[in-house]
Write a structure and sequence with these properties.
Elements lengths: L39 H13 L13 H12 L2 H4 L5 H28 L4 H6 L3 H9 L6 E3 L2 H12 L8 H24 L11 H18 L1 H5 L10 H10 L7 H23 L5 H21 L30 H31 L5 H16 L7 E3 H9 L6 H17 L8 H12 L5 H10 L1 H16 L2 H21 L3 E6 L6 E3 L12 E6 L8 H21 L7 E5 L8 H16 L3 E5 L3 H9 L2 H5 L4 E2 L2 H15 L1
Parallel strand pairs: 5-6, 6-7, 7-8
Antiparallel strand pairs: 1-2, 3-4, 3-5
Helix pairs in contact: 4-7, 4-13, 4-16, 4-17, 4-18, 6-15, 6-17, 7-14, 8-14, 8-15, 9-18, 9-20, 9-21, 12-13, 12-18, 14-15, 14-16, 19-20, 20-21, 22-23
C-alpha cells in the first residue's frame, strides 16, 4: 500500500447544508466554471462538423472570388490541375525512371495476380492500364502505384469461387468479377463522398498484420500448384487441404523440370531482393528481377520445348486494349446480391491497404493526403475499371516502395507505367505464350514474403497482449479456415476490443508526488503518498450507459479495499472520496444517474463525494441535471490538490 502523508492543517469553514462534511474555503482557489448554455442547433452542427468535416475541407474557399472558387473546386476533384501547373522537365525525368521501373515489376506480377483471382492473365494487365490513368488525375498521393495486389486478388478469387465455378462457368464468373469490382468502387467512393473514411480504422493494425501474414502464407501455399507442376489441385485455401493435396500428388503429380525452373528463379529473385536491401542505390535490381526472370524462363522453355515435358505454360494471351465490359455487369438478377456483398468486402480491404500506403509515403516526404478524397479517387477508378474489363485495383506496397525509391515526383509515374502496359497489350502479349507457370508462382511467393511481418507481431506481443490475440486470431483464421473467415475474425476481435475498452474503462488510485501538488497513479509512482482519510480515484474514460454501472461498482470496490487496509493499519477512516474527472471527456444521463447513486450510497456511510476538474461538457451536463446542486458547488474543485487542501481541516479535527 502506498505511504500516507499527514493531514494538511487549515481553518474550517461552516458546515454545508444536508449534513455534508465541512470544506475549507480559500479566497485564492479558482472555481470550476460552468460554460454558457449552448444553442442546441449550434451544438449539433459543431458535433456534426467535428465528426464528418474535422479537417474543414472548405477552408480554402473562404474569402475567395467566384472564379478562384471554381478553380479550387476543380483542383479539389482533380488534383492534377493543381500540381500540373508547376510540373517541369526535372520532375518528368524522375517520374519517367520510376514509371519504367514499376512497369518492369508490374507486368509479371499482374499476370500472376490475375491467376490468384482465377482470371485470365490479360485481366491483370488490363487492371494496370485504365485504373492508374484515372488515379493519376484524381488521386492526391505522389508515390502510390496502382494495380492489382496479391491480398485483394486472393480474397476476390476466394469469394467469387464460392458463388460460381470459374472452370465450368467462366462467363458468369467473369461477369460476377466485374460486378464485384463495380460495387467495390461504389463502396469506396461512397465512403469518401459521405466522409465515412473513419470506418476503415475499425480494422486495427494488429488485426491487419495478422490477416496479411495469414494471407501471405495462404497465397504462397496456393502457388505450390504451379511451382511443383501439380495438375489436380484442391480448390480450398486452408493449409490442411492444400498440404494434403500437395503430398498426395508427390509420387505421380510433381514435375521435376517445373520444380527446377521455379526453384532456380525463386533463388534469383530472393538474392536480388537481398542485394536491394543491403545497397539502397541498387533498388532497381529487385524491381527488374521479375521481368528478367520472365524473359529468361520463357526463352528457356521455348528453346527446350519443356512444355512438351509437362511444364505448364501461360499459353495464349490476347492482344489489344481493354474491351468495354459495361454490358457484362449484373444490375439485376440472382448474382446482384452476391456482387454487392463481395464488392463491399473487397473494396474495404483494398481501401485499408491503399490509404495506409498513401499515408506512409506522405509522412516520409512530409506532405498531406486527404483520406476521403483518396477514397473517392480509388472508387471512381474501380467503377471506371469495372466498365473496361478490369478487376479490383488498389495501391500496391511493393510497387509503391519501388516507385518511391526510384525517385517519383508525381502521379505521372503511374501514367508512364500505364503507357508501358498499353504497349505490352498491343504488341508484346504473344511473347508470353511460353512463360512457365512456375515463374509466375515464384514471383508471387517472392512478392508476398514481406507481408509476413514477424517483427511487428513480436512488438505487438510485447506492447499489448489483447492486440496480439487479435493478430493471431486473424492469422490462424486465414490459414486454417479461409480468407473471409480470417477477415471476419479480424473485424470481430477489433470490435470486441473497442467494446471492452468502452465498457471496462481503466480507473486508478492517485497519490501526491512528494514536494509537489501533482497527483498521479500510485502504481506508476510508488513514491506517491496518500492523504489519510482521503481516497482519490481517476476515471480514464467518458462515462456512458455502456460503462456507468461498471465505473460506479469499480469505485465502490476501490473504496471497500481501501477501507479494509485502513482498518487493518489503524489509520483514520475514509471521509472523502475524490474523483479526478479530467480524463472524463463526456457523460450521459446514465453516467449522471450512476454518480447520483454513488453520492447517495456514500452519504449513508458518512463519506463526502468530491469532483475534481470536470471538463466543460461534463460540468455543463451536471449543472443542467441539477446533480451539481445536489452535490454542492463547494464540493467541485479545479484540481485534486485544491480538493485535498479543502479536506484538510476536517481531517485535522479527526486526528
Amino acid at each position: 500500500m502506498a505511504s500516507r502523508a499527514h493531514p494538511v492543517d487549515g481553518d474550517v469553514s461552516s458546515a454545508t447544508d444536508g449534513g455534508d462534511l465541512p470544506i475549507k474555503s480559500s479566497p485564492h482557489r479558482h472555481k470550476v466554471g460552468v460554460p454558457p448554455k449552448q444553442n442546441m442547433f449550434h451544438d449539433f452542427m459543431y458535433t456534426f462538423k467535428e465528426t464528418f468535416f474535422h479537417d474543414d475541407p472548405l477552408r480554402h474557399f473562404k474569402d475567395q472570388p467566384k472564379s478562384k472558387q471554381s478553380m479550387l473546386g476543380l483542383q479539389s476533384v482533380f488534383p492534377v490541375f493543381d500540381w500540373g501547373r508547376s510540373y517541369n522537365l526535372k520532375k518528368f525525368r524522375g517520374d519517367l525512371i520510376a514509371g519504367l521501373t514499376i512497369a518492369s515489376l508490374c507486368i509479371p506480377q499482374d499476370i500472376g495476380y490475375a491467376k490468384l483471382a482465377n482470371l485470365d492473365p490479360k485481366y491483370g494487365l488490363y487492371s494496370s492500364f485504365v485504373p492508374p490513368l484515372v488515379y493519376a488525375c484524381m488521386g492526391s498521393s505522389r508515390d502510390i502505384a496502382i494495380g492489382p495486389v496479391a491480398v485483394v486478388s486472393l480474397l476476390l478469387g476466394t469469394l467469387l469461387r464460392a458463388e460460381v465455378n470459374p472452370v465450368t462457368n467462366p462467363d458468369e464468373y467473369l461477369r460476377l468479377a466485374f460486378t464485384a469490382t463495380f460495387f467495390a468502387g461504389v463502396t469506396e467512393a461512397a465512403l469518401g463522398f459521405f466522409r465515412l473514411g473513419f470506418l476503415i480504422d475499425f480494422l486495427s493494425h494488429a488485426a491487419v498484420v495478422g490477416f496479411m501474414g495469414g494471407a501471405a502464407i495462404t497465397m504462397a501455399l496456393q502457388q505450390l500448384k504451379g511451382f511443383l507442376g501439380i495438375k489436380n489441385f484442391t480448390k480450398k485455401t486452408d493449409i490442411v487441404a492444400v498440404l494434403d493435396s500437395v503430398f498426395s500428388a508427390a509420387h505421380h503429380g510433381w514435375n521435376w523440370q517445373t520444380i527446377l525452373i521455379g526453384a532456380s528463379f525463386l533463388t534469383f529473385l530472393l538474392t536480388s531482393k537481398l542485394i536491394g536491401k543491403k545497397n539502397k542505390k541498387l533498388f532497381w535490381v529487385p524491381a527488374v528481377a521479375p521481368l528478367i526472370s520472365v524473359i529468361h524462363s520463357t526463352f528457356f522453355v521455348y528453346i527446350t520445348r519443356a512444355d512438351k515435358q509437362g511444364v505448364q505454360i501461360v499459353k495464349h494471351l490476347d492482344k489489344g486494349i481493354n474491351p468495354s465490359s459495361f454490358d457484362q455487369i449484373y444490375f439485376s438478377g440472382r448474382y446482384l446480391g452476391q456482387g454487392i456483398r463481395i464488392g463491399v468486402v473487397a473494396g474495404m480491404v483494398a481501401l485499408t491497404e491503399a490509404v495506409a500506403i498513401g499515408r506512409t509515403f506522405a509522412a516520409m516526404k512530409d506532405y498531406q493526403i486527404d483520406g476521403n478524397k483518396e477514397m473517392v479517387a480509388l472508387g471512381v477508378m474501380n467503377v471506371v475499371g469495372s466498365m473496361s474489363s478490369c478487376y479490383v485495383a488498389t495501391g500496391s506496397f511493393s510497387r509503391s516502395a519501388v516507385n518511391f525509391m526510384a525517385g517519383c515526383q508525381t502521379a505521372v509515374s503511374n501514367i508512364i507505367m500505364s503507357i508501358v502496359v498499353l504497349l505490352t497489350l498491343l504488341f508484346l502479349t504473344p511473347l508470353f505464350k511460353y512463360t512457365p507457370n512456375a515463374i509466375l508462382a515464384a514471383i508471387i511467393i517472392n512478392a508476398v514474403i514481406p507481408l509476413i511481418d514477424i517483427q511487428a507481431a513480436i512488438l505487438i506481443f510485447k506492447v499489448d497482449k489483447l492486440d496480439f490475440v487479435a493478430c493471431m486470431g486473424a492469422f490462424f483464421g486465414v490459414i486454417f479456415a479461409s480468407v473471409e473467415i480470417g477477415l471476419l475474425i479480424a473485424v470481430s476481435i477489433s470490435f470486441a476490443k473497442i467494446l471492452l475498452q468502452v465498457t471496462r474503462p481503466r480507473t486508478a488510485v492517485l497519490g501526491s508526488i512528494p514536494r509537489t501538488s501533482v497527483y498521479r497513479n500510485i502504481q506508476q509512482y510508488p513514491e506517491a503518498t496518500m492523504v489519510p482519510g482521503v481516497l482519490t480515484i481517476r476515471v480514464d474514460s467518458a462515462i456512458y450507459f455502456s460503462n456507468s454501472n461498471y465505473v460506479r461498482e469499480r469505485i465502490q470496490r476501490w473504496l471497500l479495499e481501501e477501507e479494509e487496509k485502513v482498518k487493518a493499519a489503524s489509520l483514520p477512516r475514509i471521509q472523502f472520496l475524490i474523483i479526478e474527472m479530467s480524463p472524463v471527456t463526456d457523460i450521459d444521463t446514465s453516467g449522471i444517474h450512476a454518480l447520483e447513486d454513488l453520492y447517495k450510497s456514500l452519504q449513508k456511510r458518512d463519506i463526502q463525494l468530491i469532483l475534481a476538474n470536470p471538463g466543460p461538457l461534463v460540468i455543463g451536463k451536471l449543472h443542467l441535471s441539477h446533480f451539481a446542486d445536489m452535490l454542492g458547488y463547494d464540493h467541485i474543485f479545479l484540481t485534486v490538490a485544491d480538493a485535498v487542501e479543502a479536506c484538510g481541516p476536517k481531517l485535522s479535527d479527526e486526528v
